[in-house]
Input
Amino acid sequence: MKTVKTILNIIAWLVTIIFQITIGFLAGYIFFAEGYGNIVFMWIGITSSVFLIGLVATVFRRTFTSKKYLLRLGLTALGASFSLIYFYQFDFFYNADYEMYVQYPFLAAVGGVIGFYMFGWLVQESSYWKVIRIIGYGVSVLVISAEVYVLWDWLTPFSLPIQNLRPNQALNMELVNIVGDGSGDNVGTSFQLWDLDGGIYMMGIKGVVTTDESSLYIMDFSDPALPILSNLYDVGDYYYVIGMYESYVYMYVEEEIQVLDISNSIEPIVVWHYDIDWQHARMFIHGKYAYLVDEIDGIYVYDVSNSAKPVLINHQVDLTEIGYISGFDATGQYFYVFGDHRVYVFDASDPAKIVETAVINKSFDHVTTMIGNLAFLDDSLYIGNEPATLSIVELSNPEQLRLVSSYHWLQWSNISGASEGKVYIADWSDGIHVVDFSNPKDPKEIAYFGMKDGALSATMGKNNFVYVIPDSGFGA
Output
C-alpha cells in the first residue's frame, strides 16, 4: 500500500512539473508578445506561472509556510532568468512579430521549475544558506515589483497625448481649401482627384500627388492655398515615387528607376532611367545625392545636381548588408539602416567614400521615420493589434542609440513629416495631429484637425500650409 502511494506521489509530482513547464512556456510566450517584445514581461509570465502552479500543488502540505514560499518565488525567478539573459545576447532572440524560437521560453520555464524545487535540495545548515536566502528574498521582492509594473502598464498604458477627434474639431488649424471636390475633371483650378494613395511630394512650387493607379497628378503650388492641377501624367504602369530634387521626380516604374522632368508641366519627359531589381535595390535621395542601395552589388552614389545626367561618383561593393537607408541625422553626415536585427551607422560626409562607423546589435524592425536627431519607430504594421507602440530613439551619438521613450498609439497612424520641430501625425481614423517633440519625454499636442474619413498623409508646404490627403480627397 505504501509503495502504491509512493508511486502515485511520484506521478502527481511529474504531472505537476509537466504542467508547470507547459503553462510557464505558454505564459512566457504570450506575455512577451503582449509586452511588445519586453523581456521583463516574458520573465514575469514564466516565473508567475511556474510558481503559482507549484504553490497550488504544495500549499496543503503540513510543511507549508509563507516565508519558505517567498524564498521559492525568488529561486524560481533566478532559474528562469539565467537562460533568458543568455539568449537575450543573440540578435535573433525575437523578430518583428515579437515571437521567438520556442526553445527560449521552454528552457526558461525548465530553469524556473528547477529553481522552484531547488529549495528542498538545499542544506539549510550549510555555509552558503544565508547568502541564498538573501538573494532569494531580494529577487522575490524584485519579482513582485515587476508584476506590479506589468499590471500597471496593461491597465494604464502610457499613451501618446493626442486627442480623439470629431469631424471639423480643430485646434490652431484652419481648413482653407478642399482641392479636387468633384466639381469637374479638367486641368485647372477645378478638378476631381481619384484613387489617391497618400503621397504628396513638393519641391518649391512644383509637386506631384500619387495615385494607386498608373496616373500621376502634377501640381502647381504657386498659391499655397489654391494648388492647381497642371497635368495628369500617365506613367504607363504601377509606380512608386522615391522623392524629388528641384523639378525632377524620381520613381520606381516596373524594373527601373525613372527620372521625370516636370519643369514643363504640360510636357513632362523622362530624362534618365536605370534598370534595377525591385527585390534587391532601393534608392534614397538626400540633398544633391542619390544613393542606390543594392543588396547584391553594394551601394551606388550619384551626383544629381543635373538630374538629366546623374554622375556616378562612388560604387562600394563592400556595402551589401545595407539593403535600404532609413534616413540621415540632423547633421546630414550620418545615415542609418534600422535592420531586422542590427542598426548600421555610416559616415557619408564624403559620398565618394562611405565609411561604416558602428554596428549596434538591436532589433528595430519597425517602420522608421527619421526627423532631425530622433528616429520614430512604429510597430503598427507588424503587431496587428491595438494599441501599437511608437518608440523614440535619440541619434545624437551615432555609436550609441538611446531609447528615449515609448508610447501606445492607434494602430492606423503614421508619422508624416516635420516642420520646425513640429511632428505631423496622420491618423487614418481621426484626422491630422501636430505634436511638439522638442522634449521627447514630454510631447505636447499643439494643433489638430478632425476629419470624417481620417487622414492618410500630411505634407508640409510653404507659409505654414499643410496638405492632407483623406480617404476622399485632398485638403489644404
